[in-house]
Amino acid sequence: MAKKRTARANGGTKKMPHSGGGDDLVDVTVVVLEDGYASTAIAPIEIFHSAGVVWNWLHGETLHPRFRVRTASVDGRKVNAAGSLGLIPDCAIRDIKQTDIVIIAAPGWDVLDQIAKNTPLVPWVKKWHDRGAYIAGACTGVAFLAESGILDGRVATTHWGVAEIFRKRYPQVCWQTDQFVTEDGRLFCSGGVYASIDLSLYLVEKFCGHEIALQVAKSLLLSMPRGRQSGYSVVQLSRPHSDARIRQAEEYLQQHFDSDVSIDSLAERTGMGPRNFIRRFKAATGRLPGAYVQTLRVSAARELLEHGASSIQTVSSKIGYEDIGFFRNLFKRHTGMTPAEYRNRFAQMSFDRGELASGHAGRERVIPSVTRPPAARSAADPARPRGAASL
Question: What is the Cα–Cα distance from 240 to 187, expressed in whole angstroms?
């Protein structure tokens, strides 16, 4: 029998000097489960622990931790993870009195058995969501969110291997398993074991801002969060809503953001008239369709610039704008910087995992090419001539 190894699964016990007091720290609880994947707990612990610490130390700056991480098991006892790795939690879930973020680590593949063995976790997750905490599920850990009912009517992802099981057991959840990370309100899901890295970096960005997340990624030699298979980053575009037809329109726009899509075609796709579609889209998402597309395009432009795109004109064209002047103004309005300033500040601060594995970190990552009409015009650009109603 293999000798069991034991690790204390916490954010580190050594106190480090920092400028901020403890009161400004974001409290994170990582829940570990028997027979689960330790990496889906350890990766979040190390990423949250690194925010404001590792980059600062490497540059001789004052340390400023941003998160306080604790681990918990259902009963407070040691759990044995896959691969005979023992994890000793800080406490039981009942001992948690304050938390801002809860992360449920992946419990393995027999999810229904794990739910049966860890039934107290289901109402505990719902309790903290009702109290206002941000709840995240890593890989198959998403099952505990779905079992509690808090994912009903919400967008979620999980590992492709259990996707059909989850769809049948939780039909009220809007499963989008083509995504690595999803966000809907205060609910976050990741699609695979190592997508917990994407999930953690995404939460760092959400709580601390883009620059801190990039610093964590750079210092730990990680790439920034992957969104869809296309490689574009996740971006929260709308507030939580339950309008299924508008969700359908959102999904279509996210897949075709680089092309011109008319209001008429979207309205027809969702079975509405144009005016009713615009009204319902705004009511559901908080944005007009044109502004929604602009946010998508700026997000894609940010990733291209972070990976050192060769020219601003190339970036502008790839995301759907031929008018580079309009693109510059739009980008600055969204980010506070011109595209060139943004690239100078952030380029090469994130790496592609494939490049790191092959020993070529820092080389520009190839973003999948997009096809679009060579002179497409869009109402996402208000300076362009208007014809039929369009985005």
Answer: 10
pLDDT tens for 55-111 read 999 888 999 999 999 999 999 999 888 877 888 999 999 999 999 999 999 998 888
8 Å CB contact between 100 and 27 = yes
CA distances from 308 to 149, 232, 314 (A): 43, 15, 11
Residue 141 per-residue DSSP state: G
Residue 139 CA: distances (Å) to CA of 37, 79, 192, 289, 387: 9, 18, 4, 32, 46
**What pLDDT does residue 113 have?**
86
* Main-chain dihedrals φ then ψ at residue 352, nearest 5 degrees: -90, 135
How far apart CA 224 and CA 218 sit, in angstroms, is: 9
The rounded Cα 213 to chain-centroid distance in angstroms is 12
Give just the sign of the alpha carbon dihedral 108, 113, 116, 117.
negative
Number of alpha carbons in the 13 Å side-chain half-sphere of residue 74? 19
What backbone torsions phi and psi does residue 126 show, to the nearest 5 degrees?
Answer: -65, -40
Phi, psi of 2 (to 5 degrees): -65, 140
CA gap 13, 389 in Å, rounded: 59
CA torsion through residues 6, 9, 15, 16, sign? positive
- pTM of the entire predicted model: 0.61
Q: How many CB atoms lie within 10 A of CB 90?
A: 19
Amino acid letter for position 254: Q
Domains of the chain by range and CATH?
5-219 (3.40.50.880), 244-358 (1.10.10.60)
Rg of the chain on CA atoms, in Å: 22
d(CA 163, CA 15): 42
Confidence class for position 31, pLDDT limits 50, 70, 90: very high
Q: Band of the pLDDT at 228, cuts 50, 70, 90?
A: very low
Backbone angle region of 35, left / alpha / beta, with phi > 0 → left and psi within -120 to 50 → alpha? left
